[in-house]
Amino acid sequence: MSDILLNPIVNKPFTQTTVKLQNIILPNLDICTTEELFLRLNTKSVLNYEYSHIELKNSGVISFDTYFNAFSVQKWLDYTRVKNIGLNLTLQGKFKISLFNIDYAAQVKKLVNQKVINSHELADRNVFNNIDINLYKGLLYVEIEALANNCIFQNGYFYANTIQTQSLDQKIAIVICTYKREYYINKNIELIDNYLFKQSNIGNKFEIFIIDNGRTLKNIYGSQIHVIHNKNAGGSGGYTRGMLEVLDRKSDFSHIILMDDDVVIAPEVFERIYNFQNVAIDANFCVGGSMLRLDNQYMQHENGAIWDQEVVRIKPDLDLMSINNVLFNEIEEYINYSGWWLFCFPTKLIDNSKLPYPFFIKMDDMEFPRRLNHKIITLNGVCVWHEALEKKYSAMMNYYLKKNELILNVIATDNFSKLDAIKYFVKFSMREAFCYKYKSANVVFQAVTDFLKGPEYLKTLDPEEKNLEIRSMGEKAVKNHQLPFIYGKYQESLSETENTFYRWFRLITLNGHLLPSIFFYKNNKLTQQTYKIISMQNYRPINVFRSKTALYYNLHNAEGFAVDFSREEFFKIAIKIIFLSIQIFFKFSQIKRKYRDTLPELTNRNFWESYLEINKYSS
């Protein structure tokens, strides 16, 4: 039975009741089958995917010291009202059930409690009560050993008897911005419907707002699902449209979760976010989701990040099958933004004058959380699987990255100077020119040129038309490029090195653009230096030096494009660099002031409703 308590600060009632904190979940054919992310089995335990349970013989063991199923003691202690926890398990048979603690420092397991349970039928059994988590750091996890044959484990959960801080009537709005990615949208909606909405105790706590920038989604129905056709104003416009929809029903929703359209997610993640926010000690906490790779599902791309004139990924490239890495992931570091592949924030932090900036794509998920300026928490098991970013090469991205990075720096970084801006764009455009990517260098010039047009240009441009214009610029990766791919040549470029003398020789000759033709490799055998084959993501000027032609290749999707050495194109770019540098030098102070002065105007509802032409695109 619930007890009604009084919050002494605001003199409002809180309810003390039993609150589920975290489910113990199993691998799933629809989501992820990397078992070591969920559990560890010995040879007498078998995971039955068809029935979603584990079958154990005598001495069969399941250990849940894993990314998804260990319990993050320190963060629940620090950021919620949880002080004591319990454990329920659904099982059949005779088991020895042990609760272990493993902390950051010792990294050795310590027994917290142990019981023998004999369940004659498959049923939910209470195993532990009132475990005082103040005594522990790091992770708590369950280990189950069968003491007889024909035992079954199905699922379980950690719970607490504590105070709920969130109104039971309020929901979480899940906002997904999409552009012609029906496969991912349909898959995730099916997962959410099957594994979340159909749960009687939690399913009605969510609604989904799908902002369809491509205006192509069909046949998605449900009382908790809203498909909204929107002008293609990029991710910024899509997520903002979703926020506007939620603001129209602000009293219904305590939090908003922003989620990418090209991810795979375990619906348990939404329940964990809801449970965490339900007992949080501060109603302003944000929760950031880690990004795991979709191709190697155990690899973490980042667990939050820092923007400090450049991106610093936190906990990058961790193998989360390792318990040591799961522990390391628990150690809290400073972060000031979290990617919008999964980001949860309280609805009360926004209103009609606190909306995202119109970046179209890129940097919006950095600028907005920084402006919210509230604590971002990450939790093991709160994540999405996302396509590896290196698979997504596009010269168009250089335009949005470079323009928006300049804008973000001038509106958010006090000490970002005109010389910083010049060095920033010169370094990147010269690197592209050194690498014979002359079209890409011109994309950067267009980005800087549009940045110098100031915020008035942002207010008046048509984002769809501008995007089509940018897409027509730059090198385009294709499947059937004109040069043969030879893996040995590709590997050579990755391992290529140089000594100091060679490096200075390259730089003095502007990476060969001042060298006479006699010094370039001759076109003879395919397997020799006829042309270079270079990673599209990890390219360096040394890779093309003294070669007349290069093939940039993406090994992940077998696409590439060829480029040719051109003195004429290089020196055209050099002249543009000088010209644009002079413009930045004389215009920068005024432009910086304009961007800062117009920030309130470009982040309010009146601007966005006009920019998105909401009346025209409303469904």
Name some characteristics of this structure.
7-stranded mixed sheet; 11-stranded antiparallel sheet; 619 residues; 3 domains; single chain; alpha+beta; Spore Coat Polysaccharide Biosynthesis Protein SpsA, Chain A; disordered N terminus
Helix and strand topology:
Elements: E1 3-7, E2 12-24, E3 40-41, E4 45-48, E5 53-56, E6 61-63, E7 71-72, H1 73-79, E8 84-102, E9 109-132, E10 139-146, E11 151-164, E12 171-178, H2 182-197, E13 206-212, E14 225-229, H3 234-247, E15 253-259, E16 263-264, H4 268-278, E17 286-288, E18 290-293, E19 299-302, E20 305-307, E21 311-313, E22 318-319, H5 323-330, E23 342-346, H6 364-372, E24 376-377, E25 383-386, H7 395-412, H8 418-434, H9 438-452, H10 455-460, H11 463-471, H12 487-495, H13 500-508, E26 532-535, E27 549-554, E28 559-564, H14 567-597, H15 599-602, H16 605-611, H17 614-617
Parallel strand pairs: 12-13, 12-15, 13-14, 17-24, 18-25, 26-27
Antiparallel strand pairs: 1-2, 2-11, 3-6, 4-5, 5-11, 6-10, 7-10, 8-9, 8-10, 8-11, 15-23, 16-25, 17-23, 18-19, 19-22, 20-21, 27-28
Helix pairs in contact: 7-9, 8-9, 8-14, 9-14
Low-confidence stretches: 1-11
Strand residue percentage: 25-35%
- Oligomer designation: single chain
Question: What level of helicity do the residues show?
Answer: 25-40%
What would CATH call the class of the largest domain? Alpha Beta
Which structural class do the helices and strands define? alpha+beta
Give the overall shape. globular
The number of helical segments is: 17
Number of strands: 28
The name of the CATH architecture of the largest domain is: Alpha-Beta Complex
Provide the number of structural domains: 3
